[in-house]
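Marked as duplicate of an earlier ticket. Keeping the data here for the record.
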Amino acid sequence: MIRLLGAVLVVAGCGALGLGGVARLDGRVKDLGELAAGLDALQRELGWRLAPLPDALETAAKALHGPTADFFTRCAQRVRQADGQSFREVWRDSLNAAPLRLTAEDRGFLERLGPVLGRYDGDSQRLALEDAAAGLRQLQGAAADDLRRLGRVYGVLGMTAGLFLAILLI
């Protein structure tokens, strides 16, 4: 009876590991989409309303939820504090501190936007944000393809590994 219970727990644990991999892939797709939406909101605020950068960041944060809202809120707070850091450093530090489920490539792509924001005229910032949002949507499409392709693999691999280990243990 204890062996059977142990086998069930092993299968469940391995299945949970596989589903955790699927959740990470799904989280990346969601975070990239939310970031693109946040950049769209930031683009409207900076490009059309000509709002100050901290206000634009707060407005973008209010339009979002989850880790992306935390990222934009953190940026706005850090810009308002003005500890002598450049916006580029604030953007990079906020990006690294936020619990976003992004790859190093995604983070590097977003870091390139930091030096442009708050530094140039409204049209230049608007164009940079438009290009960045389009790039994020491309990355989101690639991440969605990974989710479709690898999601099933992770789920099946987790369950199969669990069953294999359970058979070995019994």
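See parent ticket for discussion. Helices lie at 2-48, 53-62, 67-81, 87-97, 104-111, 122-169.
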